[in-house]
Task: inverse folding
């Protein structure tokens, strides 16, 4: 046994700066931080929550984090292109379940993440929502969903143009009065995965709702969610689908609000948002990846996620043993809210949704 190994076993707090965090000490003791330090780095491909990586670097100064950031579709395309070229660069991938399952899992680019979970507070399913680990893949071991985000239908409105009390169902926003007054992120560009799955698989909505909303409402489409949020705030449109900056706009004093869809007839979607984690096969830094994964899913990592992941729209971790003070009520799961859980593997197949959208958008363009 070399000196580094003895040091981790005898005093696991030596590898990290916050010695008071006893649970964090287990990360080093059980995951092999010595071997991870010898590898020197971990490559994390991440959408949206890259701010949390700085906390890991502070806790593990001997493990550098090489972060590759971007939209989910861009990241999955990059990973698969790298692999086709014989380059295995990524160790860990964090983004929405759509790309994780639809591209990486189906493309056989993943190894099971489940065997890597060794930290007791991570393994203990009683510490997680529903007293279970939620996996988005059909085999239940590759794609770990770490977020529990309610009301993830991404529907916002201009508070000067819409009285939200008049809308009690998704079908209400397809009424003639809203025709030509809706703006949406282009559904072909990605970023609407959880909401689109909710629409498609919810028996009270289904393909017909998607056809009506996208095909008959003269909806304006754009590829930039900041632009559509600006248009909503300016009053050019009354309702927005995909305004990811809605809470940021509201915090700036603009007349933008999110609909409270948990009270609507069909309820709200309950998704992982951009929060699912996977482990790449042929990972170049397997030990560092194991340390990172256990740290990220630990209490410390998930607290950091809620606090730092997105200051304008803090995400809600599926961990139930951590404070939720940093999470806005709208992003938590309401005890009496009605939710449709689209994280379940039976709803993971996005191909029929994508095929339907392609058909609708092609028909829309033919009308012009």
Result:
């Amino acid at each position: 046994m070399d000196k580094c190994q003895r040091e981790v076993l005898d005093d696991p707090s030596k590898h990290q700066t916050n010695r008071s965090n006893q649970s964090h000490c287990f990360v080093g003791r059980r995951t092999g931080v010595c071997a991870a330090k010898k590898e020197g780095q971990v490559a994390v491909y991440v959408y949206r929550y890259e701010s949390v990586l700085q906390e890991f670097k502070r806790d593990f100064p001997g493990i550098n984090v090489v972060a590759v950031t971007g939209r989910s579709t861009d990241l999955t395309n990059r990973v698969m292109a790298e692999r086709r070229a014989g380059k295995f660069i990524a160790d860990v991938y964090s983004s929405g379940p759509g790309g994780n399952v639809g591209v990486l899992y189906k493309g056989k680019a993943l190894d099971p993440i489940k065997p890597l979970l060794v930290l007791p507070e991570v393994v203990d399913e009683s510490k997680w929502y529903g007293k279970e680990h939620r996996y988005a893949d059909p085999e239940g071991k590759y794609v770990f969903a770490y977020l529990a985000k309610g009301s993830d239908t991404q529907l916002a409105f201009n508070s000067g143009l819409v009285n939200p009390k008049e809308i009690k169902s998704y079908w209400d926003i397809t009424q003639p009065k809203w025709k030509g007054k809706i703006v949406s992120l282009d559904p072909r560009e990605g970023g609407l995965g959880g909401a689109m799955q909710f629409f498609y698989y919810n028996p009270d909505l289904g393909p017909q709702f998607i056809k009506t909303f996208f095909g008959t409402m003269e909806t304006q489409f754009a590829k930039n969610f900041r632009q559509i949020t600006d248009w909503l705030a300016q009053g050019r449109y009354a309702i927005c689908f995909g305004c990811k900056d809605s809470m940021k706009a509201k915090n700036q004093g603009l007349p933008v609000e999110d609909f409270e869809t948990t009270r609507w007839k069909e309820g709200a979607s309950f998704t992982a948002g951009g929060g699912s984690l996977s482990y790449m096969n042929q990972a170049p830094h397997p030990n560092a990846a194991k340390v990172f994964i256990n740290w990220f899913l630990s209490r410390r990592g998930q607290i950091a996620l809620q606090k730092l992941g997105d200051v304008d729209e803090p995400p809600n971790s599926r961990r139930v043993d951590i404070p939720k003070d940093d999470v806005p009520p709208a992003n938590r799961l309401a005890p009496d809210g009605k939710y449709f859980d689209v994280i379940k593997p039976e709803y993971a197949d996005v191909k029929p949704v994508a095929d339907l959208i392609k058909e609708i958008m092609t028909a829309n363009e033919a009308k012009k």
Remarks:
- Residues 143 and 278 are 5 Å apart (CA to CA).
- Residues 1-26 have pLDDT under 50 and may be disordered.
- The chain has two domains: 3-148+272-337, 150-270+348-367.
